[in-house]
Amino acid sequence: MKSSNYRSGIVCLLIVVGLFSLLGWKMGAAPMLNTVMHTAHDLLLNTCFYLMAICVLTGAIGKVFVEFGVVDLLEKLLRPLMRPLFNLPGVASLGAVLTFLSDNPAIITLSKDKHFARYFKKYQFISLTNFGTAFGMGLIVIIFMIGQGYFVEPLIGLFGAFCGCIVSTRFMQHFVVKAYPNYATEEATTGAHGQDTIVALNEKDDDEGEQQKSLFIRILNSLLDGGRSGVDIGIAIIPGVLIISTLVMVLTFGPSANGTYTGAAYEGTEALPWLASKINIVFEWLFGFTDPHQIAFPITALGAVGAALGLVPSFIENGWVDGNAIAVFTAIGMCWSGFLSTHTAMLDSLGYRELTPKAILSHTFGGLFAALVAHWVFVLFSLF
Fold first, then answer.
1. Contact indicator for 118, 125 with CB cutoff of 8 Å
2. Spatial separation of the C-alpha atoms in residues 170 and 130, rounded to whole Å
């Protein structure tokens, strides 16, 4: 066991030293370190806090929606779509609304409610991981894109994410039934793990004291509680933005205007655009990408959509994005929403860790399909 740890330690050390040696060889050791620190600092001040502000506001709105029955209304409106499109019971629409207003794990919190889980067959219940992830942080992503000056494009991206969710959920159900045929008929609450905890999410409080609260107090409590949850999400995305986005930007951007490395923020080696340019025709046809730098967004969204959003302002400033890119970014950002970093934990909490590879494969296809749909819908929209 110790020799195995030694080997993994040596491999880790070689990768880290090798990466920074290559960057230092290209940029110079001192400029590289200065660029990394300045980029992370600028991302913290100008991107992370901006995202946190959006999270606080959307969290407050989401809590108000829950308190005053808007979520129930949306759930009833969406319920007829669940069976024909996603092969899920109507109550699954509540999961879509909650993850859209918050983040991926909301679907797992909801699934721990026995009253919610009893509507599902086991294969449908497992596919909730894919279903909920496709809408995670959706409101935050859309509001962020609108804040960058785009209005129609994020809505096209939302439609693309919706289509990608259908593909991901259906693929996951197919893989689960193929691997475990008995799951097609077993109830989700039969032998399922983690179903003993009842989460009273979205249930109305019958306590007389709650009913007697004034309208003002209900609104105030909803705003403050929702805003507090938004702060938690905002803090949670800071490590991803600073670590992943900084690394991606160092691999995406080039030297300063005069071709030298000064240690300023957002300088880099242009490694990712160089690699993307070798197969740029694929991304151009599939997603309509007009600049090889754009490939950095979907790569980053695999790990954290908050980090991917951190790339957008710099991309806009450098003129690397257009309306099509915003639509595709919204679709793939929503649909993937950092699923590589959450799927394992989500399936583990449900008790089906061994199905993680199937969930990841299904969601990879779903995200690519979401981007494809967003691109071609934007093309059709542009014609009119």
1. no
2. 9
Q: Pick left, alpha or beta for residue 191 (phi over 0 → left; psi -120 to 50 → alpha; otherwise beta).
A: left
Phi and psi at residue 134, to the nearest 5°:
-65, -15
Q: How far is Cα 31 from Cα 228, in angstroms, rounded to an integer?
A: 39
Cα first-last separation, the chain: 64
- Mean pLDDT for all residues in the chain: 84
Report whether 189 contacts 114 (CB < 8 A).
yes
Give the DSSP H/E element, type plus range, for residue 367. Answer: helix 356-383
> What is the pLDDT at residue 262?
92
CA 307, CA 296: separation in Å to the nearest integer? Answer: 11
Length of the chain: 384
- The span from the CA of 67 to the CA of 51, in Å, is 24
Contact 135, 334 (CB under 8 A): yes
Render pLDDT for 68-89 as a digit per residue (tens, 0 to 9).
877 778 778 888 889 899 999 8
Any bridge partners for residue 65, and if so which? Answer: none
192: pLDDT strictly greater than 50: no
Environment class of residue 205 by beta-carbon count within 10 Å: exposed (0-12), middle (13-18) or buried (19+)? exposed
Chain centroid, CA 347 distance in Å: 16
Yes or no: say if 366 and 172 are a contact pair by the CB < 8 Å rule: no
Distance CA 322, CA 327 (A): 9
- Calculate Rg over the CA atoms of the chain: 22
